[in-house]
Design brief:
alpha/beta; 7-stranded mixed β-sheet; single chain; 16 helices; two-stranded parallel sheet
Length: 409
């Protein structure tokens, strides 16, 4: 074997596994037929298989059959139709911001890439370099913003005692933030907790943020996937656009169109007027060009094909609702199973929370017990992906959770 000590990289230490992706690595090594992966944030069918939507297959076939299509580079900002339709999807077709040309939208590499481009832009051109993110939040958020040059601080969000929203803590922390600070908001289906503010609470948040000049940066990874309704899941964002203020929104089509590997996303910045929006776009190009030059064409073409065809759009909404409904059904089945077993504690948060994830309230020791004794894989903070469950695996999970609470507590 070659002597690695001669390598110019010999000083490197092995980096730890990503806490989320590492769950799948461990799961794949397990040979037990009982194993269940509840760590991955990707939709699965009742049979535990990845799903390609019928409407996506149709759109892809149309693109393949179109012999006039070529593989030329897109512009720096991406596919124009995709950008226009993405803005309409999140802000609403009748949005005054769109009608007044106050929105600039650029195609990016899914949600992560959209967040990163937005963060880089803010680090270069916004006067305040502190971003407040919820505690807890998606594990990639602090890394994305820190590496882009922003200073990350946290605001209270989740209350472990109620397994719900710490609304007063949230308001107090945002009220104490410096004027002009950036605030990351999950548009819907908060990851990892599944806990969202009510419409009234969103209105209180909006009023507080606008009064302090805080800049909203929405992460919208689950539009339509949370409730099954595209408009309902975008309501929080639209409240901040209707008031005429400025904001940023990162969109992903990974979940709601099942386009995980296509890396399709968009960053929209809502500005005060059309002239500012035009200047903002010119600077976004300068962020994107040295980063990855321009985005890929295939996934964005699939999205644009579906969004601009009324029949395909309608078919998409039906398939989207079916996915959301299956996850809601898994919540109900798990809650019922916990009730049937008489598991100590209140488990109503399972059906109150929304979206792909549930924050179970289990601790790291209990999670480790479930992995060791029941071959159930999840992140150590007790977050489970409801989409990874099926009617067949719910009883096994309920048995494991019951045992963890009664034996490993």
């Amino acid at each position: 074997m070659a002597d690695s000590s001669n390598s110019v990289f010999a000083h490197l230490v092995r980096a730890p596994e990503d806490p989320i992706l590492g769950v799948t690595v461990s799961y794949n090594k397990d040979t037990s037929p009982l194993k269940v992966n509840l760590g991955v944030g990707a939709y699965r069918t009742e049979e535990g298989k990845p799903l390609v939507l019928n409407v996506v297959r149709q759109a892809e076939q149309m693109l393949v059959n179109d012999t006039s299509r070529v593989k030329e580079y897109l512009s720096i900002t991406g596919l124009a139709d995709f950008n226009k339709l993405s803005a309409k999807l999140i802000f609403g077709a009748d949005s005054p911001a769109i009608q007044e040309n106050r929105v600039t939208t650029v195609q990016c590499l899914s949600g992560t890439g959209s967040l990163r481009v937005g963060a880089e832009f803010l680090a270069r051109h916004y006067h305040e370099h502190t971003i407040y993110i919820p505690q807890p939040t998606w594990g990639n958020h602090p890394k994305v913003f820190t590496l882009a040059g922003l200073s990350v601080k946290y605001y209270r969000y989740y209350d472990p005692t109620t397994r719900g929203l710490d609304f007063q803590g949230l308001l107090d922390d945002l009220a104490a933030a410096p004027a002009g600070a950036i605030v990351l908001l999950h548009a819907c289906a908060h990851n990892p907790t599944g806990v969202d503010p009510t419409v009234d609470q969103w209105e209180n948040i909006r009023q507080l943020m606008r009064s302090k000049g805080l800049l909203p940066f929405f992460d919208s990874a689950y539009q339509g996937f949370a409730s099954g309704n595209l408009d309902a899941d975008a309501q929080s964002v639209r409240m901040f656009v209707v008031d005429g203020g400025e904001c940023l929104a990162a969109q992903s089509y990974a979940k709601n169109m099942g386009l995980y590997g296509e890396r399709v996303g968009a960053l929209s910045i809502v500005c005060k007027d059309a002239d500012v929006a035009s200047r903002v776009e010119s600077q976004l190009k300068l962020v994107i060009r040295p980063m990855y030059s321009n985005p890929p064409i295939h996934g964005a073409s699939i999205v644009a094909t579906i969004l601009k065809d009324r029949q395909m759009y309608n078919e998409w909404t039906v398939e989207l609702k079916a996915m959301a409904d299956r996850i809601i059904s898994m919540r109900q089945q798990l809650f019922d199973a916990m009730q049937a077993r008489g598991t100590p504690g209140d488990w109503s948060h399972i059906i109150k929370q929304i979206g792909m994830f549930t924050f179970t309230g289990l601790n790291a020791e209990q999670v480790s017990f479930m992995t060791r004794e029941y071959h159930i894989y999840m992140t150590s903070d007790g977050r489970i992906s409801m989409a990874g469950l099926s009617s067949r695996t719910v009883p096994h999970l309920a048995d494991a959770m019951h045992a963890a609470v009664t034996k490993a507590a």
